[in-house]
Amino acid sequence: MDNQDIKYYLNKSFRSRRQALKPDIIYLYCPESAVEEVLNCTKDYDFDVAINDYDVKAIGRKVICHYHSAALSSEQKQFLIRAMEYGAWVEPLVSYLDARNKYTEVKLLNSGYFLHQKAFSILSTQRNQKIKRVLDIVVSLTALIFLLPIMLLVAIAIRLESPGRVIYKQLRVGQFNQEFEVLKFRSMVNNAENGKAQWAQKNDPRVTKVGKFIRKTRIDELPQFVNVLRGEMSLVGPRPEREVFICDLEKEISYYRFRHSVKPGITGLAQVSYPYGDSIEDAVWKHKYDIYYIKHHSLRSDFKILLKTVKVVLFGMGR
Description:
alpha/beta, two-stranded antiparallel ribbon, 14 helices, Rossmann fold, 47% helix, 2 domains
């Protein structure tokens, strides 16, 4: 394929990102050492991936991605640059998958994804953080005032069903890896763990009758508005986890502690996008949504997540 052929195929009309975002096939260019890794990760997608096809025709009308591009040869890099010059949509593979899937493919993450700091507006823009904090305070105060009667009824129901404290306190890891005591209505029998940390399970036998209802409707999370007022949590963010579980999860999931770059949330993209789970694979999926949220955060996205959470509460679609 000579330069004249390239100009003929690439000098086609440029397709916008929106038009080219979901083709049936994308063209990926990466080092040979990364081919198997990419194939294993993308095998279940609803589109095909053509890898290192340097003879592709009409390339200006294709979506072209690159992975570990720093390890490509000068000639391979030049191919990608020429493709951009003539109208092809070229971007890193993980960024393309972000836009298409609405979650981050964490198995393909590398340091470059995080080092483009300007992309993480929630981390680098003080204005966004201040507005988010004001909304947290206003909404939390309003919620505590209006929901106080419901909270009192729940407290009475918990106390009548089983002995023990109404409010359950547990150490969780928050922003910058700082631990804090998360507050929840107790939904399990007293001393449910017997001194040993255990994953909560679907249909957990330790859950009381009242606990089953308040977990399903997320009412058990209401005391966390106090955590929000204290500045330990936000309305929207990654779910706070316990250090003992985090130590295990970060061995299996790359960049797991990056979720602690923001405050944990009462609700979040992972909570409203993925069903309850208690396995490593479930934690991987939750992390995909958490990383995506951190990178693509906006006040609009927070509002949409809060609306979805209301739907979960009203229709009992929780755990």
